[in-house]
Design brief:
It contains eleven helices and 15 strands. By secondary structure, the chain is an alpha/beta fold. The longest helix has 21 residues. The C terminus is likely disordered. The protein binds NADP nicotinamide-adenine-dinucleotide phosphate (NAP) and guanosine-5'-diphosphate-alpha-D-mannose.
């Protein structure tokens, strides 16, 4: 029998990709979601999930990190070998609007889950992964950021994650639980949520290319992020739980790019070069050939407090886990744009795009999406 894993947040970008990764390694995977019926489509459609008790390799269970007793019952029933806590209200900007909910899910949620693991008597055997984040570093003084860089959160999201990070380390120390924090820098892919900047850009560029939109409206173009590919990062999560002893690790590419860099690279995939005019809120990105305005700035998309620059040092993960990111920035942008071009292609005779059996963990095969 393979190992049994429980993934919270299984319907999210990372959860779906991790489920695919673990299934390919012979795990029986259980996913927790607030909407099990709908969750069998979407990002999980190609994994043929079944209801609880169906014996499907991926079983979906109703659950909510706000519901401690429900988590308690689930952990007692499933008795998983590995628990990956990926569920969160993960949108940083939104966390300023719904700070209490963000903290309930992002801070107290992991605590409820850890308590359920302990109450089920699993602390000596189960392994726990907490989705910690580079947002914890805020605008810290040290560049690049590593495991020892002090935390300086600037959003309710990051403050909630800081509590979760601390409590994970406490359960490791106080209760002997094999618990790891993965301090992950931004990771993206074709199934990234559409409210995050990379997907807003690739979807916008594809819509403009197909004549479905005229311009892309963004917030802070100067912010810099260390963007990697989700398929590399889920492998890192898994590697953390396969070690002889639990620890915390940064996963990052070590390279940072600005939002403006990402916009330029994405438009370049459709053969357009941008010329920038104006400054600040008046800045515009024009098609260098036609003069058409393709990018504008909206102050509503700026955050009340911003992390201006993130770039990580994953030396510890490289040395101890043997982990290294395989996908570079250019390849990431190319893959995301290609998938959105295919998704939004209005050509009436085009057959529906088939989701490859391994959508996330394997690179999209050449020819699976149309080249434009
Ligand atoms: P995502 O796409 O936004 O997915 C979030 C997941 O959380 C969804 O599956 C959602 O499920 C679930 N969820 C939200 N509230 C919940 C609740 N109350 N109870 C149970 N489930 C709930 O996020 P992601 O990009 O995959 O990220 C995964 C995790 O890694 C998050 O914790 C995020 O904060 C963290 N992280 C992400 C990155 C990144 O760059 N992607 C970097 C560092 C850390 P339903 O709505 O279907 O129930
Ligand atoms: N979302 C968004 N939308 N961000 C924009 C936009 C826009 O229209 N325009 C500019 N940005 C800037 C944001 O201000 C931020 O500086 C940067 O683009 C990245 O924003 P997001 O893609 O929303 O990601 P994030 O870095 O705030 O948070 C993501 O990464 C964290 C790890 O560092 C999320 O996945 C978090 O859950 C994760 O912890």
């Amino acid at each position: 029998m393979g190992k049994v894993a429980l993934i919270t947040g299984v319907t999210g970008q990372d959860g779906a990709c991790l489920a695919e990764f673990l299934l390919a390694r012979g795990y029986r995977v259980h996913g927790l979601t607030r909407r099990p019926a709908e969750a069998r489509g979407g990002r999980l459609a190609h994994l043929h999930a079944g209801p609880p008790g169906s014996g499907a390799p991926l079983e979906l269970h109703f659950g909510d990190l706000l519901d401690g007793p429900g988590l308690d019952r689930l952990l007692r029933r499933l008795r998983p070998d590995e628990v990956y806590n990926l569920a969160a209200q993960s949108h940083v900007h939104l966390s300023f609007e719904v700070p209490e909910h963000t903290a309930e899910v992002g801070a107290l949620g992991p605590l409820r889950l850890l308590e359920a693991i302990r109450a089920a008597g699993l602390a000596p055997t189960a392994r726990f992964y907490q989705a910690s984040t580079s947002e914890l570093f805020g605008d810290g003084a040290e560049v690049p950021q590593r495991e020892t860089t002090p935390f300086a959160p600037v959003s309710p999201y990051a403050a909630a994650k800081q509590f979760a990070h601390a409590v994970t380390a406490i359960y490791r120390r106080a209760h002997g639980l094999f618990a790891c924090n993965g301090i992950l820098f931004n990771h993206e892919g074709p199934t990234r949520g559409e409210a995050f900047v990379t997907r807003r850009i690739t979807r916008g560029v594809a819509a403009i290319h197909h004549g479905l939109a005229r311009r892309l409206v963004l917030g802070n173009l100067e912010a810099r992020r260390d963007w990697g590919h989700v398929r590399d990062y889920v492998e890192g999560m898994w590697l953390m739980l396969q070690q002889p002893a639990p620890d915390d690790y940064v996963l990052a590419t070590g390279r940072s790019h600005s939002v403006r860099d990402f916009v330029e690279a994405a438009f370049a995939e459709t053969g357009r070069r941008l010329a920038w005019h104006g400054r600040g809120l008046d800045e515009r990105g024009l098609d260098a050939r036609t003069g058409e305005v393709l990018v504008a700035v909206d102050p509503a998309l700026f955050r009340p407090a911003e992390v201006e620059r993130l770039v990580g040092d994953a030396a510890k993960a490289r040395e101890r886990l043997g982990w290294r990111p395989r996908t570079g920035f250019a390849e990431l942008v190319r893959e995301m744009v290609a998938c959105d071009l295919a998704d939004l292609d209005p050509a009436p005779l085009r057959p529906p795009r088939e989701i490859p059996a391994a959508f996330c963990t394997a690179p999209i095969p050449e020819g699976a999406v149309p080249r434009t």
